[in-house]
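ok trying again, last paste got cut off:
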Amino acid sequence: MNKGIILAIASVLTFSSCHSVSPNADEEAVLVKKPWFFGHGGVDMTPIKSGLTWCAWSTHGVSFKIVPEKHEVFLDDLFSDDNTPLDFHSVIVTQVIAGKSPVLLSNYGEKWFETNLYNYFCNLVRDHISQHSPFDLMSNREVLNTIDQKIAKQMQDYVNTLSKTKEMPIIIKDVIIGKATPNKEQLAEMNRTAKVVQAKQTQEREYEVQVAREKAERQKAVADKAYMDEMRLAPAQFIQLKWVETVASKPDANIDVLVGPAENMWNIKRK
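nice, full thing came through this time. structure:
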């Protein structure tokens, strides 16, 4: 057979049995080799950091972010110190140490967070939530910040403990448990309670206004009685005087008032 044909066939077979691995700028790729027919495969302990790498068809690449990465964790029905069920949308931020992604894959697999850190994180959050009131967990930023810091430290300590047996090249960058949210049943109950409290407060304010009005009227009555006694006015005279004062206080008043005989008529004029 012609050497050119043989080379062409060999080239086709070679390239058709290969594929490429090309990590993004914020990633490392780890090659996992499998033997063609016999022999040993395994994790290539040298990560691919950039560029295009061709691999045999039996080799595949696993990508790892080497920048901080968020893991969202939704936790429902965690109980506060008074057994109020609360929901949380929490975030834990981790980072794989650059150059160590093959170690992480070899020791803990692709699902290293889900299989090794997730449950421990959930248990820590649950434990801390049980020590605080619903009010603090829903609105006290200082309390929430303290919980975040404590859990972040405990998570890093746990990673360090795991590393004593098998290295886990992970840094815990941040933890944010988020503000508590009442579940649907609890929220409905809180709304009902709020309406009852609001109605009671409205009644109390209306009662206070009524009491204040009655007190003011009593004080005015006492003052009027004292004025009548001092001026030696009969009740009818006092009523007439108040009527004159009321009319005279109106804008553009121009009123003739007769007090006793006709010669005692006097005029009230207001501009």
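cool. Residues 232-271 form one domain. The chain has eight helices and eleven strands.
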